[in-house]
Design brief:
Elements: H1 2-21, E1 55-62, E2 71-77, E3 83-89, E4 92-99
């Protein structure tokens, strides 16, 4: 049960990161018109479960496929996979492994 809760928390953190970027500047009010929050959870089937690791080390918001839609990448240590990409599609989220191996170093967020 604890592993499942951890995975759900990790995914929720990633989604919050994606949503927060839509707000614009860091000082923008949280309740801007047009922004609607929706809690997504792997427990409800909204998002795929990232893996077995309980230690998230990165949450990066980016548009790696350059389709104009913000996706997010999560980094993990402890257990493989080390990096996973959540890609937004019209019917939900797809999950792709970027680095399938276990890596000992902790990841940090970086985007360009």
């Amino acid at each position: 049960m604890r592993a499942r809760i951890s995975a759900v928390s990790v995914i929720w953190l990633g989604v919050v990161t994606v949503q927060m970027e839509l707000l614009g500047p860091a000082r923008a009010p949280v309740s801007q018109p047009g922004i609607q929050w929706r809690h997504l959870s792997s427990a409800n089937g909204d998002l795929p479960v990232p893996g077995e690791s309980k230690e998230q080390t990165a949450a990066i918001v980016a548009d790696p496929d350059r389709d104009g839609v913000k996706d997010f990448v999560l980094g993990f240590r402890q257990k493989a996979p080390a990096l996973v990409w959540y890609r937004r599609k019209p019917t939900g989220w797809s999950w792709y492994v970027i680095e399938k191996e276990f890596l000992r170093s902790g990841w940090r967020g970086l985007r360009h």
